[in-house]
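User: My advisor asked me to double-check a structure prediction for CBS domain-containing protein before group meeting. I don't want to rely on an old file, so could you generate it fresh from this sequence?
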Amino acid sequence: MLFFENYATVEDVINFKQSENPEHDGLLKIPMTATLLQLIDYMADHQVGVVFLHDADDQIIGLISERDIIRHIAMNALEAFEKPIHMMVRHSVITCKRGDKLKAVASHMAEQHIRHVAILSDKGEYIGVVSSSDIELFAGKG
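Assistant: Sure, here is a fresh prediction for CBS domain-containing protein from the sequence you gave:
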């Protein structure tokens, strides 16, 4: 626990995730023109709870999580399946960097009541997501 408390970083979780699933590159994204069913299928195929949404220029415009999908369906009933998915995207994405201390990221997630934080490279590009489940699995690995 001392390692997690004092030394573990987001980079450690990235490495752990890649060792658990080597073919996954970390940045799962779907076009903003996708339908809700395509989004749900994509998330199910990749067994993830959040994906990035990108525009026609392949620029990330936000994140969509399982919670966003449920909220969208609850608010719109069957019409949810007819509305564009970009209407449910979170444009204000909370981010962290590879070198950030994991304890600080986990604390921020708890304070904000969120389960996913986007990871930025040193160049400011999105490179993946760290989830509360990722942190729990990493903390419990040893």
